[in-house]
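Subject: Sanity check before I submit

Could someone independently write out the structure tokens for this chain? I want to compare against mine line by line before I put it in a report. The sequence has 108 residues.
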Amino acid sequence: MDPNSAVTYLQSLLGKQLRITTTDTRMFVGTMKCTDHERNVILALTHEYRHPSAASVATAAAATSSSTSNIKLDMMSRFLGLVVVPGQYITKIEVEEYQAPEQQSSVV
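---
Independent answer below. Compare away.
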């Protein structure tokens, strides 16, 4: 990809909702504000999602009395606000297509 089209593509992501996965399996979901030459990404209004800890999984497994081996646990989340995700730890970036109803503009 030539530099001009790369810049154009990155500019098209500004203000979009991104889901960034890091090397430690955390996910950050927020609005892209900027990036730099080291691939760091700044997100606003960000929520962090983590997989349940091994202790939580063990507790849920012990509490399950059924004979099935499937356990369903939600990811843990917390609101962070404005964050910098270091580029060296980013493994995947996805654009979220969904827009919350309050972000959609209506044409009258």
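---
OP: Matches mine. For the report I'm noting this point. DSSP finds two helices and five strands in the chain.
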